[in-house]
Amino acid sequence: MPLISGRYSILSTACIHLLLLFCVAEYAESGMIVQTLPGFSGVLPFKLETGYVTVNESELFYLFFESQGKPKQDPLLVYLIGGPGCSALNGFFFQTGPLLLNTSDYSGGLPQLFYNEYTWTKTSSIIFLDGPVGTGYSYATSSQGYYTSDTESVAQTHVFLRKWLADHQEYVENQFFIASDSYSGIITPVLAQAIIDGNEAGLQPTINLQGIVSGSPHTNYSLEANSRIPLAYSLALIPRNLYESAKNSCNENYLVVDSSNAECLEDLEEIDECIDPVNDENILDPKCAELFPKPADDEQQVRRSLIAHSRNLRFPFFKTQDYWCRNFEYKLIDIWANDKSVQDALHVRRGTIKQWYRCNNSIPDNTYTYNIGSAADYYKNLTNYGTQVLIYSADHDLVVPYISSLEWIDSLNLNVDYAWRPWFVHGQVAGYTLRNEYHGFRLTFATLKGAGHSPTQYKPVECYNMFERWIHYYPL
Q1: CB proximity list for 66: less than 8 A, separation 6 or greater
Q2: In the annotation, is 453 catalytic?
Q3: pTM of the predicted model over 0.85
Q4: Which CATH superfamily is domain 7-220+372-471 in?
């Protein structure tokens, strides 16, 4: 895979493409208000708007939730889901949105919904975006339009945001943040730099970008893959003698191994036997179905390990108190989002998609090019702009190990604002945090104790408290 490095090699291309897209694309259609949803009793207790924004040959679908607090003062977020190819509804139902699926007593039919008291929309307005094209309800008007890449995703999202704000002028002055999860972590700082460059170039409307909030963020393929074994050791998944042997025989490089290094290969095989039965997303959860391909040396496979697959599961519907698997919840969202009454309520254009997927596997497999190898350098660039950044990580996640995030954060050579310490929710340790700064740039890092990938799905109470404090400039 080509690895593009350096700020201008990507952004010059992205900015040129952005200008071309503005020349050929029409302004966004106004969204439509949704007052009721199948499965929810009564009128929705929040403002929900859905719609499409045209970006060249793409029609990007979004759900917009206005803040239930003070919408004129509260920040505006765009929420980018992982994958690539995981839908906006994945973030809406399982991470930060105002509704939850009732998974406790499902017995068939259309799943029921109830209000999420820990939704981030209590204190911010959020745009959940189906991107890149081919994700969720987004679609292309030509077959060629489905071919995209990391940098193309940045350009598409950049155009989407300026066109959406042009059509929603009442939010132009609100503080704006990019929020992301998992794979979209590699898109986030590149998009932030593109927005800054676009503002400086005079693109309108100006986006009042203040910062980034990113959970379990994919940032560097090699760093994350190489951190799995040290984290597995620290979590007591492999014994000390095996870890020390592999550490020495592989010279602490577990990703690219010389085929002649028999000792290293034998150690890695034994380690794999220890780790393989464990759920990579959260080592505390049962591994009831394969959600990720088995890790491999091939970088393409490492990238695909960040893709949360939406399988056509064949198990019967069961009571969660008898057996439990997180994929059961994912099956429920498949049922709900593919229901025609749901799609009509969301104003999805009929005939534009054949099947809705929580995570569309065909995007990474067939039509997506991974061309940003590392996003760490972009964070280094952002230190010049006073950007506020929150990186939060699960401490039981082997997909994006938190120690890999700490490593690239250390590489930024920032000043220590406060050192590693616990942070609390309701008097209990929720995780550990540190904060670094550089001339107005401030990066807060936080772990979520006992959480998996993605943290908001596993620790909604703690994540809401963390977000509410940070977004309003309070220390954790």
Answers
A1: 46, 47, 49, 121, 125
A2: yes
A3: yes
A4: Alpha/Beta hydrolase fold, catalytic domain (3.40.50.1820)
